[in-house]
Amino acid sequence: MKEAFVLRGNELFKHSLTNDGVQVQPVPIPPPKLNPIEAPRNGDMLDALRAEMAKYQFVPLPGLPRFCGGLVGYTGYDVVRQFEDLPNTAKDVLGVPDAVYMMTDTLCVFDHAKHRLLVIANAFIAPSPQGEGGADGLSHQRGGIVTAYEDAIARIKTIVARLNAPYLNLSPDPSAECTPTRSNKSQSEYEAAVRKAKEFIACGDTFQVQVSRRLERRTTAHPFAIYRSLRMINPSPWMYYFNFDGLFSVKDKPLRIIGASPELHARYENNIATVRPIAGTRRRGLTEAEDAAMREDLLSDPKERAEHVMLIDLGRNDVGRIAKFGTVTVPDLMVVENYSHVMHIVSEVQGEVRDGLDQFDVLRATFPAGTLTGAPKVRTWRSSRSWKASDAASMAAQWATSRSMGKWTPAL
Fold first, then answer.
1. What average pLDDT score do residues 284-288 get?
2. Which of 65, 2, 23, 54 is nearest to 248 (CA)?
3. What is the pLDDT confidence band of residue 36, given thresholds at 50, 70 and 90?
4. Within a 10 A sphere around the Cβ of 182, how many other Cβ atoms?
5. End-to-end alpha-carbon separation of the chain, Å?
6. Taking the mean position of all CA atoms in its chain, how far away is CA 89?
7. How many whole angstroms separate alpha carbon 220 and alpha carbon 383?
8. What is the pLDDT of residue 73?
9. Which of 42, 242, 269, 271 has the highest local Cβ count within 10 Å?
């Protein structure tokens, strides 16, 4: 299986989206690891993606999910250097591209509510050659429609045949081996970064800093088996599996990205931008009474409330960058949501997007999520990068977008 993906979410159309590699095309974007100093100031990666999307017109049909094809991929943390004036202190130690997107026109959609599977194939019709009009142009267009339709039907039949074929057995492999976990920071280095962050907060340079380190281990387990195990052991509202085999490799191995996140980073739909900051955590109780006690303890904790309020303010500021004046609201304020193992405090910030802006502007204004950076964002970036507070995952948001909507989640 090459160049494929799985997106699963209880809010993402209440569907799981998969693509088996048929007719997936990589989207041309600025070269990976583009030097931010050399990047053109009048354009960035998102401008390239917007230009790519402008070539297509997806037609909404009743009864189909809101996402039936379009761009799917990820945006790396350091892409923010194309949007903000930041020092270039990052070192490429992983060799992972800053961003990878696929233009998908064929996918399977699992409808968990109705227990059905939809196979969707978009028929892309090329415009008539320039200068060809009249009867010749009409004939060419009709021929293109017939060819595109037949091609879409053939793709659907191919997928149905694959679905009817014997499936790949990905049961847990007891013989799979893992190396010991290795960190890019020692415990003493990590603790020193935490102390430095506390000094910056005490001096008033920042309110909140994301201090992290990267953990690595090698395994012989099949990547998709890892995704399935993660889905069973720790099901999250947003889960994803990207297989970029045939597009990119890291250390001579196909690039695959697996993860699960409780957080919606941003959504653009019906001209409304939405962010849902999550901050404040307690474990789930064993009983409803214990759950209720944990919820009360969480909401009464001054530290958790203060951290969450900071992220609400950050979300209001981010949305305000692209929203019409006076339209930024907080429809959900400090609601506790239960997940498989923990509970979180969640809020929702919305704003009506200004005329002339779109989902790419929403991502530019909100990226990366405050939970991956700190607050205020730019000041925290500049100070923390000088003492290496954060080694954020190379993937900061996974994305599904069509012409009129976009949805992103932090790649956790």
1. 93
2. 2
3. very low
4. 10
5. 24
6. 24
7. 39
8. 82
9. 242
